[in-house]
Amino acid sequence: MLYWLTALSDGGDAFNLFRYITFRAGGAFFTALIFGFIFGRPLINVLRRTQGKGQPIRADGPEGHFAKAGTPTMGGLLILLAVLSSSLLWARLDNAFVWIVLFVTFSFGLIGFADDYAKVSKQSAKGVPGWLRLLLGFVIAAIAAYWAGVNHPEALQNKMALPVFKDLLLNMGYVFLPFAMLVIVGSANAVNLTDGLDGLAIMPVMIAAGALGVIAYAVGRVDFTEYLDVHYVPGTGEILIFCAGLIGGGMGFLWYNAPPAAVFMGDTGSLALGGALGAVAVSTKHEIVWAIIGGLFVVEALSVIIQVGYFKLTRKRIFLMAPIHHHYEKKGWAEPTIVIRFWIIALILAMIGLATLKVR
């Protein structure tokens, strides 16, 4: 919205600053951060009053989690509202990619909200049926993937770019749409599975948002793409503003989610943020690089798939408990140890993913 103040500029005054994506990204970050600090405690108080017993604790979960009984959930609302306010204020509202990412974020957020509400109201770990969540997720992802494809340059439509190989594009044809849908839905559910310890999911989400924001800015500038030998996707630079708002909102949330958590993100936040990152990857044509940057989420999801599949075949378990962060809890690792080590892994993977921009 503030971008339109550039209409008042003569090119040499303060209004000219609003032309720059980096300036507006900084504004989005601080707007979302301040939003989180101001409204975090009031939102937690409302959630505590309305939810009563808070998020149900799984009976078969790690023993240490029973001490967290009564902690309210749906704290992801704080992040989503911070991201929405900062994006609407600082991003160009005539940019299709901004609306694609916001559409995915809040659509998945609604699915997560319904799931959290069902769990809290019934005081059961079972919320919205899994098949319904997946069905709605794939419908949302189909709309977003098609929408993004329409706004990609014709030379990139229905094609997958590979890291390292600068000129290689795989023409996937009609297969690209389901592939992009899988990226978005898989991302949403992978982040959802990672959200199991205080602060575990939100920091890797912020790290990934930072890396993807840099990529979005780079591929949205023709001079950067020529220097880096990556594919130019006009308009994606504005996604940096969304990512900056996500980081600011995430920091505001982490202030209250740091151990011991005063509020949980819930599916409201984890599904929304995971879907958002997947949508950014599809928009910027960096789906494979996203698998590297979000490698921690991939491992968490794979640990569940492997555990379930192996158990069905052999009636035995590979991990003490899945997702894998619970495996380390069962092994006796302290919760802060797991969280911080996973943060370090997320940062390393993000650096590797960013390195693919230059390694060509």
Describe the structure in your own words.
The radius of gyration is 20 Å and the shape is globular. Strands 1-2 form a two-stranded antiparallel sheet. It has helices at about 20-50, 75-90, 95-120, 130-150, 175-195, 200-220, 220-230, 240-255, 265-285, 285-295, 295-315, 325-330, 335-355, and strands at about 160, 170. The protein contains 13 helices and 2 strands; from the N terminus they run H-H-H-H-E-E-H-H-H-H-H-H-H-H-H. The mean pLDDT is about 90. The chain has one domain (about 1-355). Helix 6 runs parallel beside helix 9. The chain has about 350 residues and is mainly alpha-helical. A hairpin with a 7-residue loop joins strand 1 (about 160) and strand 2.
Keyphrases for this structure?
360 residues, mainly alpha, 13 helices, 2 strands, 2% strand
User: Largest beta sheet, briefly?
Assistant: 2 strands, antiparallel
Number of strands: 2
Quaternary state, please?
Answer: single chain
Radius of gyration: 20 Å
Helix and strand layout, with pairings?
Layout: H1 21-51, H2 76-90, H3 96-122, H4 130-151, E1 159-161, E2 169-171, H5 176-194, H6 202-219, H7 222-228, H8 239-257, H9 266-283, H10 287-293, H11 295-314, H12 324-330, H13 335-355
Antiparallel strand pairs: 1-2
